[in-house]
Design a protein that fits this description.
The protein is an alpha+beta fold and 119 residues long. Helix content is 45%, strand content 29%. The chain has a single domain (3-118), classed as Beta-Lactamase.
Length: 119
C-alpha cells in the first residue's frame, strides 16, 4: 500500500483530522496529505521529529520501554506523532473537535501499516 494512500485513509477515518505526514529521522518529508498549506505541515513534521528524538533519548535512560506515540494538545489543535522503526515518524494534526481516542486507534494502525511498507 503506497504511503499517500495510508495517509489519506488515516485522515478519512478520523473526523477532524487536518493533516498527516511521513517524515524521515531528519524531519524531511517523505509523503504528506493535508487540508492546509503543505509547507506548514512540513514544518510541523520537522518540529515533531526533533521533539521525538529528544524524548527517545530521555526515555533511553529509563526502563519504561520505547515510545509508541505522543499526543500534544494546544489551544488551537492537537498533534499526534510516533516513531516508525528507528528511521521514520508519522505525524497527524487534528482540530480541537476531533475524537482523540479514535484518532489514537487509527494512528496506531497507520503506524503498523507504514512499518510493514518500510521494513
Amino acid at each position: 500500500m503506497p504511503f499517500k494512500r495510508i495517509l489519506q485513509e488515516l485522515m478519512d477515518a478520523v473526523p477532524g483530522a487536518t493533516g498527516a505526514i511521513l517524515a524521515d529521522w531528519e524531519g524531511e518529508a517523505v509523503e504528506q496529505c493535508c487540508c492546509y498549506d503543505v509547507y506548514d505541515l512540513k514544518v510541523i513534521g520537522a518540529h515533531k521529529g526533533i521533539l521525538l528524538n529528544i524524548m527517545k533519548e530521555m526515555h533511553g535512560k529509563l526502563s519504561v520501554g520505547e515510545i509508541r506515540h505522543t499526543f500534544i494538545s494546544t489551544e488551537q489543535q492537537h498533534f499526534l506523532f510516533g516513531p516508525i522503526g528507528p528511521d521514520y515518524l508519522l505525524v497527524m494534526t487534528l482540530n480541537k473537535r476531533a475524537i482523540v481516542g479514535l484518532a489514537v486507534r487509527r494512528f496506531e494502525s497507520a503506524l503498523e501499516l507504514m512499518y510493514k511498507e518500510i521494513y
